[in-house]
Amino acid sequence: MSAQLIGLQKLWDEAPHNAFTDLIRFRDSWICVFREGSDHRSPDGQIRILISHDGASWSSRHVLSMPGLDLRDPKITMNPAGILMINAAAAYDSSAPIRHQSFVWFSEDGIDWSSPQKIGEPNIWLWRIKWQENVAYSVGYRTVEPLITRLYSSRDGIIFDTLVDNLFVEDFPNEAALAFKKDGTAICLLRRDGSQATAKLGLAQFPYMDWRWKDVGLRIGGPQLLCLPDGRIVAAVRRYGKDPWTSLNWLDQEEGTLTEFLALPSGGDTSYAGLYWHEELLWISYYSSHDGKTSIYMAKVKLFENIAPR
Protein backbone atom coordinates (compact mmCIF):
# COMPACT_ATOMS: atom_id res chain seq x y z
CA MET A 1 0.00 0.00 0.00
CA SER A 2 1.38 3.42 -1.00
CA ALA A 3 -1.50 5.62 0.19
CA GLN A 4 -4.40 5.60 2.63
CA LEU A 5 -7.52 7.75 2.62
CA ILE A 6 -7.78 8.98 6.21
CA GLY A 7 -10.47 11.66 5.85
CA LEU A 8 -13.33 12.59 3.54
CA GLN A 9 -15.76 15.49 3.97
CA LYS A 10 -18.50 16.97 1.81
CA LEU A 11 -17.91 20.72 1.82
CA TRP A 12 -20.75 22.08 -0.30
CA ASP A 13 -23.81 20.96 -2.24
CA GLU A 14 -26.16 23.94 -2.04
CA ALA A 15 -26.29 24.81 -5.74
CA PRO A 16 -27.87 22.45 -8.28
CA HIS A 17 -24.38 21.86 -9.73
CA ASN A 18 -21.12 22.32 -7.75
CA ALA A 19 -17.87 21.57 -9.56
CA PHE A 20 -14.36 22.44 -10.80
CA THR A 21 -12.38 23.04 -7.62
CA ASP A 22 -9.03 24.39 -6.53
CA LEU A 23 -7.32 24.64 -3.15
CA ILE A 24 -4.69 26.73 -1.39
CA ARG A 25 -3.40 27.34 2.13
CA PHE A 26 -3.08 31.03 2.97
CA ARG A 27 -2.06 32.60 6.31
CA ASP A 28 -2.83 29.45 8.30
CA SER A 29 -6.25 29.05 6.67
CA TRP A 30 -7.61 26.91 3.85
CA ILE A 31 -9.33 28.41 0.80
CA CYS A 32 -11.35 26.28 -1.60
CA VAL A 33 -12.80 27.79 -4.77
CA PHE A 34 -15.22 26.22 -7.24
CA ARG A 35 -17.93 26.94 -9.78
CA GLU A 36 -21.58 26.64 -8.93
CA GLY A 37 -24.56 26.97 -11.25
CA SER A 38 -27.81 25.43 -12.35
CA ASP A 39 -26.04 22.86 -14.55
CA HIS A 40 -22.67 21.67 -15.82
CA ARG A 41 -22.87 24.44 -18.41
CA SER A 42 -25.28 27.28 -17.67
CA PRO A 43 -25.27 31.08 -18.02
CA ASP A 44 -25.42 31.56 -14.24
CA GLY A 45 -22.05 30.01 -13.37
CA GLN A 46 -20.34 31.84 -10.49
CA ILE A 47 -17.30 31.29 -8.27
CA ARG A 48 -17.85 30.50 -4.61
CA ILE A 49 -15.04 30.92 -2.09
CA LEU A 50 -14.98 28.80 1.08
CA ILE A 51 -12.56 29.42 3.96
CA SER A 52 -11.62 27.19 6.89
CA HIS A 53 -9.26 27.87 9.79
CA ASP A 54 -8.99 24.22 10.83
CA GLY A 55 -9.74 22.23 7.68
CA ALA A 56 -12.93 20.88 9.25
CA SER A 57 -15.41 23.76 9.57
CA TRP A 58 -15.93 25.68 6.32
CA SER A 59 -17.86 28.88 5.63
CA SER A 60 -18.75 30.73 2.44
CA ARG A 61 -17.03 34.12 2.43
CA HIS A 62 -17.49 35.51 -1.07
CA VAL A 63 -19.00 34.90 -4.50
CA LEU A 64 -17.59 36.21 -7.79
CA SER A 65 -20.09 36.65 -10.59
CA MET A 66 -20.51 38.48 -13.88
CA PRO A 67 -24.18 38.76 -14.88
CA GLY A 68 -25.00 36.90 -18.07
CA LEU A 69 -21.64 35.11 -18.17
CA ASP A 70 -20.73 31.59 -17.12
CA LEU A 71 -17.58 31.72 -14.97
CA ARG A 72 -15.80 28.39 -15.34
CA ASP A 73 -12.94 26.40 -13.81
CA PRO A 74 -11.60 28.82 -11.17
CA LYS A 75 -7.98 28.32 -10.12
CA ILE A 76 -6.36 29.98 -7.11
CA THR A 77 -2.71 30.84 -6.57
CA MET A 78 -0.58 33.39 -4.74
CA ASN A 79 1.81 35.81 -6.42
CA PRO A 80 5.32 36.58 -5.09
CA ALA A 81 3.96 39.58 -3.15
CA GLY A 82 1.63 37.33 -1.18
CA ILE A 83 -1.51 38.47 -3.01
CA LEU A 84 -4.11 35.84 -3.85
CA MET A 85 -5.22 35.43 -7.46
CA ILE A 86 -8.19 33.60 -8.92
CA ASN A 87 -8.27 33.07 -12.66
CA ALA A 88 -11.22 31.71 -14.59
CA ALA A 89 -12.77 31.86 -18.03
CA ALA A 90 -16.07 33.54 -18.83
CA ALA A 91 -18.18 31.69 -21.37
CA TYR A 92 -20.31 34.03 -23.46
CA ASP A 93 -23.66 33.44 -25.10
CA SER A 94 -23.38 31.65 -28.45
CA SER A 95 -24.55 34.82 -30.22
CA ALA A 96 -21.63 36.87 -28.84
CA PRO A 97 -18.67 37.70 -31.14
CA ILE A 98 -16.30 35.78 -28.84
CA ARG A 99 -16.73 32.44 -27.09
CA HIS A 100 -14.48 32.84 -24.05
CA GLN A 101 -12.40 35.43 -22.24
CA SER A 102 -10.06 34.75 -19.31
CA PHE A 103 -10.19 36.98 -16.22
CA VAL A 104 -8.27 37.40 -12.96
CA TRP A 105 -9.30 38.70 -9.52
CA PHE A 106 -6.94 39.72 -6.67
CA SER A 107 -7.30 39.69 -2.87
CA GLU A 108 -5.07 40.49 0.10
CA ASP A 109 -7.14 38.47 2.58
CA GLY A 110 -9.24 35.96 0.60
CA ILE A 111 -12.46 37.76 1.58
CA ASP A 112 -12.50 41.05 -0.33
CA TRP A 113 -11.75 40.66 -4.05
CA SER A 114 -10.94 43.12 -6.80
CA SER A 115 -12.96 43.73 -9.92
CA PRO A 116 -12.18 41.28 -12.75
CA GLN A 117 -9.42 42.10 -15.20
CA LYS A 118 -9.07 40.52 -18.63
CA ILE A 119 -5.99 38.39 -19.21
CA GLY A 120 -4.76 36.83 -22.44
CA GLU A 121 -6.51 36.92 -25.77
CA PRO A 122 -10.18 36.37 -26.58
CA ASN A 123 -11.04 32.73 -27.31
CA ILE A 124 -7.84 31.46 -25.68
CA TRP A 125 -8.61 29.97 -22.27
CA LEU A 126 -5.76 30.43 -19.77
CA TRP A 127 -6.73 27.38 -17.79
CA ARG A 128 -4.30 27.39 -14.85
CA ILE A 129 -1.56 29.78 -13.68
CA LYS A 130 1.63 28.57 -12.04
CA TRP A 131 4.30 30.82 -10.50
CA GLN A 132 7.99 29.94 -10.85
CA GLU A 133 10.89 32.24 -9.90
CA ASN A 134 8.62 35.32 -9.78
CA VAL A 135 7.16 34.57 -13.22
CA ALA A 136 3.63 33.34 -13.87
CA TYR A 137 3.21 30.70 -16.57
CA SER A 138 -0.01 29.50 -18.13
CA VAL A 139 -1.00 27.19 -20.97
CA GLY A 140 -3.89 28.66 -22.91
CA TYR A 141 -5.98 26.72 -25.38
CA ARG A 142 -8.03 28.04 -28.26
CA THR A 143 -11.75 27.42 -28.03
CA VAL A 144 -12.29 28.14 -31.74
CA GLU A 145 -10.36 26.97 -34.79
CA PRO A 146 -7.44 26.47 -35.02
CA LEU A 147 -7.47 24.33 -31.85
CA ILE A 148 -3.95 24.82 -30.47
CA THR A 149 -2.27 25.52 -27.14
CA ARG A 150 -0.02 28.47 -26.38
CA LEU A 151 2.40 29.04 -23.49
CA TYR A 152 2.29 32.44 -21.80
CA SER A 153 4.41 34.17 -19.17
CA SER A 154 3.71 37.19 -16.98
CA ARG A 155 5.51 39.27 -14.38
CA ASP A 156 2.37 40.71 -12.77
CA GLY A 157 -0.36 38.15 -13.42
CA ILE A 158 -2.21 40.61 -15.67
CA ILE A 159 -0.17 41.13 -18.84
CA PHE A 160 0.57 37.73 -20.35
CA ASP A 161 3.08 37.58 -23.20
CA THR A 162 3.32 34.68 -25.62
CA LEU A 163 6.32 32.51 -24.85
CA VAL A 164 5.60 29.60 -27.23
CA ASP A 165 3.07 30.38 -29.94
CA ASN A 166 2.19 26.78 -30.83
CA LEU A 167 2.98 24.68 -27.79
CA PHE A 168 1.05 21.61 -28.95
CA VAL A 169 -1.40 21.45 -31.83
CA GLU A 170 -2.57 17.89 -32.52
CA ASP A 171 -6.03 16.46 -31.69
CA PHE A 172 -7.59 19.34 -29.75
CA PRO A 173 -5.18 19.88 -26.85
CA ASN A 174 -6.80 21.83 -24.03
CA GLU A 175 -6.62 21.63 -20.20
CA ALA A 176 -3.05 21.63 -18.91
CA ALA A 177 -1.32 21.42 -15.53
CA LEU A 178 2.18 22.82 -15.03
CA ALA A 179 4.69 21.91 -12.34
CA PHE A 180 8.32 22.87 -11.77
CA LYS A 181 10.88 20.60 -10.19
CA LYS A 182 13.58 21.87 -7.82
CA ASP A 183 16.09 21.97 -10.69
CA GLY A 184 13.73 24.19 -12.69
CA THR A 185 12.50 21.51 -15.09
CA ALA A 186 8.99 22.35 -16.31
CA ILE A 187 6.43 19.55 -16.59
CA CYS A 188 3.15 19.85 -18.47
CA LEU A 189 0.33 17.30 -18.36
CA LEU A 190 -1.98 18.05 -21.27
CA ARG A 191 -5.46 16.77 -22.01
CA ARG A 192 -6.54 16.01 -25.60
CA ASP A 193 -10.01 15.40 -26.98
CA GLY A 194 -9.49 14.79 -30.69
CA SER A 195 -9.36 11.54 -32.64
CA GLN A 196 -6.31 10.66 -30.52
CA ALA A 197 -7.61 11.47 -27.05
CA THR A 198 -4.63 10.30 -24.99
CA ALA A 199 -2.85 12.83 -22.78
CA LYS A 200 0.58 14.22 -23.52
CA LEU A 201 3.45 14.83 -21.09
CA GLY A 202 5.77 17.69 -21.93
CA LEU A 203 9.19 18.50 -20.45
CA ALA A 204 11.31 21.61 -20.90
CA GLN A 205 14.25 23.42 -19.37
CA PHE A 206 14.45 27.16 -18.78
CA PRO A 207 13.59 29.37 -20.67
CA TYR A 208 10.87 26.82 -21.55
CA MET A 209 10.93 27.40 -25.29
CA ASP A 210 11.86 23.87 -26.38
CA TRP A 211 9.50 21.07 -25.30
CA ARG A 212 9.77 17.28 -25.61
CA TRP A 213 6.47 15.38 -25.64
CA LYS A 214 5.53 11.82 -24.71
CA ASP A 215 2.19 10.08 -25.07
CA VAL A 216 0.78 9.05 -21.69
CA GLY A 217 -1.47 6.42 -23.27
CA LEU A 218 -4.52 7.36 -21.18
CA ARG A 219 -7.48 9.63 -21.67
CA ILE A 220 -7.73 12.11 -18.79
CA GLY A 221 -9.61 15.23 -17.72
CA GLY A 222 -9.05 18.08 -15.26
CA PRO A 223 -5.29 17.53 -14.71
CA GLN A 224 -3.45 18.88 -11.69
CA LEU A 225 0.19 18.26 -10.65
CA LEU A 226 2.03 18.57 -7.34
CA CYS A 227 5.74 18.06 -6.72
CA LEU A 228 6.22 16.59 -3.24
CA PRO A 229 9.18 17.57 -1.02
CA ASP A 230 10.81 14.17 -1.64
CA GLY A 231 10.73 14.64 -5.42
CA ARG A 232 7.76 12.44 -6.27
CA ILE A 233 5.09 13.95 -8.50
CA VAL A 234 1.36 13.46 -7.87
CA ALA A 235 -1.12 13.84 -10.71
CA ALA A 236 -4.83 14.16 -10.00
CA VAL A 237 -6.97 13.46 -13.06
CA ARG A 238 -10.35 12.24 -14.19
CA ARG A 239 -9.99 8.70 -15.50
CA TYR A 240 -12.45 7.10 -17.87
CA GLY A 241 -13.93 3.62 -17.75
CA LYS A 242 -17.43 2.27 -17.44
CA ASP A 243 -17.93 5.16 -15.01
CA PRO A 244 -15.42 8.07 -14.71
CA TRP A 245 -13.65 8.57 -11.39
CA THR A 246 -11.21 10.94 -9.67
CA SER A 247 -7.80 9.32 -9.63
CA LEU A 248 -4.52 10.02 -7.79
CA ASN A 249 -1.43 8.89 -9.68
CA TRP A 250 2.32 8.84 -9.57
CA LEU A 251 3.76 10.57 -12.62
CA ASP A 252 6.94 9.08 -14.09
CA GLN A 253 8.47 11.82 -16.21
CA GLU A 254 11.07 9.53 -17.74
CA GLU A 255 8.60 6.87 -18.88
CA GLY A 256 5.74 9.29 -19.49
CA THR A 257 3.30 7.21 -17.46
CA LEU A 258 0.61 7.67 -14.81
CA THR A 259 0.29 4.91 -12.21
CA GLU A 260 -2.79 5.10 -10.05
CA PHE A 261 -2.20 4.77 -6.31
CA LEU A 262 -5.67 5.76 -5.07
CA ALA A 263 -9.15 6.06 -6.55
CA LEU A 264 -11.11 8.60 -4.54
CA PRO A 265 -14.80 7.99 -3.75
CA SER A 266 -16.28 9.39 -6.96
CA GLY A 267 -18.19 8.74 -10.13
CA GLY A 268 -20.22 10.26 -12.93
CA ASP A 269 -19.56 13.98 -13.28
CA THR A 270 -16.33 14.23 -11.27
CA SER A 271 -12.70 15.30 -10.80
CA TYR A 272 -11.03 18.75 -11.30
CA ALA A 273 -9.01 18.53 -8.13
CA GLY A 274 -6.95 20.95 -6.12
CA LEU A 275 -3.83 19.53 -4.43
CA TYR A 276 -1.91 20.77 -1.40
CA TRP A 277 0.78 19.17 0.78
CA HIS A 278 0.51 20.10 4.47
CA GLU A 279 1.87 18.47 7.65
CA GLU A 280 2.78 15.21 5.86
CA LEU A 281 -0.69 14.82 4.36
CA LEU A 282 -2.00 15.29 0.85
CA TRP A 283 -5.15 17.44 0.83
CA ILE A 284 -7.42 17.13 -2.20
CA SER A 285 -10.45 19.18 -3.13
CA TYR A 286 -12.59 17.70 -5.89
CA TYR A 287 -16.17 17.26 -6.99
CA SER A 288 -18.26 14.21 -7.73
CA SER A 289 -21.83 13.09 -8.41
CA HIS A 290 -21.47 9.53 -7.07
CA ASP A 291 -23.81 10.35 -4.17
CA GLY A 292 -26.61 11.55 -6.42
CA LYS A 293 -25.69 15.23 -6.82
CA THR A 294 -22.58 17.08 -7.93
CA SER A 295 -20.97 18.15 -4.66
CA ILE A 296 -17.63 19.48 -3.40
CA TYR A 297 -15.46 17.13 -1.33
CA MET A 298 -12.23 17.35 0.65
CA ALA A 299 -10.05 14.26 1.04
CA LYS A 300 -6.98 13.77 3.21
CA VAL A 301 -4.50 11.10 2.16
CA LYS A 302 -1.50 9.64 3.95
CA LEU A 303 1.34 8.72 1.60
CA PHE A 304 3.92 6.06 2.34
CA GLU A 305 7.46 5.58 1.08
CA ASN A 306 7.61 3.15 -1.80
CA ILE A 307 9.19 2.73 -5.22
CA ALA A 308 7.16 5.52 -6.80
CA PRO A 309 9.26 7.49 -9.33
CA ARG A 310 11.14 10.57 -8.21
Characterize this entry briefly.
Helices cover 0% and strands 58% of the residues.
Notes on the protein architecture:
This protein has a four-stranded antiparallel β-sheet with strand order 1-24-23-22, with no helix packed on it. With 310 residues, it is mainly β. Strand 14 and strand 15 form a beta hairpin. The chain has a domain of 212 residues: Neuraminidase (6 Propeller). The protein has no helices and 24 strands.
Percent of residues in beta strands? over 45%
Rounded to an integer, what's the Rg over CA atoms?
18 Å
**Which percent bin holds the helix content?**
under 10%
Query: Low-confidence stretches at least 5 residues in length (pLDDT < 50)?
Result: none
Give the tally of β-strands: 24
Average of pLDDT:
97
> Class of one domain, according to the CATH hierarchy?
Mainly Beta
What is the name of the CATH architecture of one domain?
Answer: 6 Propeller
* Shape estimate: globular
Count helical runs.
0
Summarize the helix and strand pattern as letters. Answer: EEEEEEEEEEEEEEEEEEEEEEEE
